Amino acid sequence: MTPVNVVFIGPPGCGKGTQAVRLAERYAIPHVSTGEILRSAVRDGSELGRRVADILTKGSLVSDDLMTDLVRARLREPDTARGFVLDGFPRTVGQARALDDMVGPDSTIVILIDVPDAEIVRRMGTRRVCDACRLTQSVGDAFHPDSEPCPYCGGNLVRRPDDEPETVRHRLATYAAYATPVIAHYKARPTFAIVDGLQRSDKVAVALVAEIERLRSSHRSATE
How far apart are CA 108 and CA 110, in angstroms? Predict the structure, then answer.
């Protein structure tokens, strides 16, 4: 069967991670996240891993070239033969071009999960973490006070500093700065699609599968 190679693009809080896990289960392919790639490289103690560990220890950012090398090594592993769901890469046009070289531009489905900034700020505003058991939970009101007790252990539900509205807006601005040219790189391709991320999570999942199957079908027809 033709591999199912999927790349997710979308702002923080749009649900990429949740949807990547669902798709990976549906198609029996690995969910490849850049965070896990970095952690795995450090654990393995490979030459690349030692370079990553040294960079992270110094508090520096992993370069484009090194991140690309790590992704290239991950996509060469046997479990990606049926495809992959890539989350967190590419973050630059240079990385996108490198990915084209790795797997071919025509065999990669790129989906933008589109959610307006105002909704992302609202979603992040409803997220709380218990200061005792550390479970992350949601409250019904983004402006809910931080003193509500945790329903599991009785601790206090508090907002994480990186979920403060101004911090979220800064993260969204950072995302837009790198994502806009990456989206432009992919947008004209027949294997690019946009899914409305404002829908309920289960409806987003259905829409993603529908788009993937549509794009796969179109690609098969074009190559026959």
Answer: 6
Give the containing element (helix H, strand E) for 18.
helix 16-27
What does the alpha-carbon distance between residue 14 and residue 16 come to, in Å, rounded to a whole number? 6
Q: What angle (nearest 5°) sits at the alpha carbon of residue 90, between those of residues 208 and 87?
A: 45
Structure tokens of 142?
């983004």
Which residues carry out catalysis? 16, 91, 127, 160, 171
Tokens of 41: 């490289």
The pLDDT, as a whole number, for residue 150 is: 84
Helices (H) and strands (E) in the chain, counts: 8, 8
**Beta-sheet pairing, 136-138 with 127-130:** antiparallel
Instruction: Please name which of 79, 115, 80, 113 lies closest in space to residue 99, comparing C-alpha atoms.
Output: 80
Q: Which conformational region is residue 15 in: left (phi greater than 0), alpha (psi within -120 to 50 degrees), or beta? A: left
What is the bridge-based pairing of β-strands 157-158 and 127-130?
antiparallel
Q: Tell me the pTM.
A: 0.84
pLDDT digits 0-9 by tens, 103-142: 988 889 999 999 999 999 988 888 888 888 888 877 776 6
3-state class (DSSP) for residue 94: helix
What is the rounded distance in angstroms from the CA atom of residue 24 to the CA atom of residue 70? 20
143: phi > 0 → left, psi -120 to 50 → alpha, else beta; which? alpha
Q: Is 5 helix (H, G, I), strand (E, B) or coil?
A: strand
Measure the CA–CA gap between 128 and 137, rounded to whole angstroms: 5
